[in-house]
Amino acid sequence: MNNLQLMRTQVLQQIQQACQLAQREPNTVQLLAVSKTHPSEALREMYVTGQRAFGENYLQEALDKMQALSDLEIEWHFIGHVQRNKTKHLAEKFAWVHGVDRLIIAERLSNQRDAQQVSLNICLQVNIDAQDTKDGCQPSEVAELVRQISQLPHLKLRGLMVIPAPDHPQAFQDAKQLFDAVKAQHAQPEDWDTLSMGMSGDLNAAIAAGSTMVRIGTALFGARDYSKA
Ligand SMILES: *Cc1c(COP(=O)(O)O)cnc(C)c1O
Q: Where are the N6-(pyridoxal phosphate)lysine modifications (predicted)?
């Protein structure tokens, strides 16, 4: 096995073990490979091991990789901060956008999604642990945003995305509670199936709390070198 294959196998085993501990089926947690700062050759190598879903944070970097890897059937996820003036490329090129936290962003993505394409999958980002950040809506805003966003035509609102501060595992349980509360009230619960939470350092706690998609970079590709990005 080459190195990336070994790392992916280890991460998949860790997911499986976390699922067992939580008495969950292993196929209820998807692995999103977070490839920011890594060159397209690394993504290609990871693809060969069977990985299909890749997450990127920076638009231009992602667009360059999409071009270099256009022969592969990658499912592209945007997991970075969504800037209002960058929604067009997100709407056109990605399968998923995880960082939606305002109605105006969702409206732009819906308007800019080609009606011929399948709907753009969306996760609503929530600032679940009251961090001092502009990213993520407040938990109290979620119900209304879900109501509004689920009426937009070219989007499919799939669930919530959170990035809690390290050493704050309770936040995963709070996110799960919010996720379930929306599911119980929402008019179209069949689309509401994704709780995007857990990274290399905290995937066990996230899976124990109910994550359905872990976003893993370092444990799959090794440490990031931002000086080359
Ligand atoms: C970079 C990043 C990750 C991956 O983090 P690792 O600790 O390297 O696994 C996950 N989610 C988001 C939103 C990120 O920006």
A: 36
Q: Is 29 left (phi over 0), alpha (psi -120 to 50) or beta?
A: beta
Distance 131 CA to ligand 1 centre (A): 17
154-200 pLDDT, tens digit each: 999 999 999 999 888 899 999 999 999 999 987 666 799 999 999 99
Q: What is the pLDDT of residue 189?
A: 66
How many whole angstroms separate alpha carbon 84 and alpha carbon 39? 27
> Taking the C-alpha atoms of 181, 186, 190 and 191 in order, what is their torsion angle to the nearest 10 degrees?
-90
Domains plus CATH for the chain?
3-218 (3.20.20.10)
What's the N-to-C CA distance of the chain in angstroms? 28
User: Exposed, middle or buried, 188 (CB in 10 Å: 0-12/13-18/19+)?
Assistant: exposed
Tell which residue, 178, 184, 181, has the closest CA to residue 196.
Answer: 178
Ligand 1 binding pocket, CB closer than 6 Å: 34, 36, 57, 79, 163, 199-201, 215-219
Q: Give the pTM.
A: 0.96
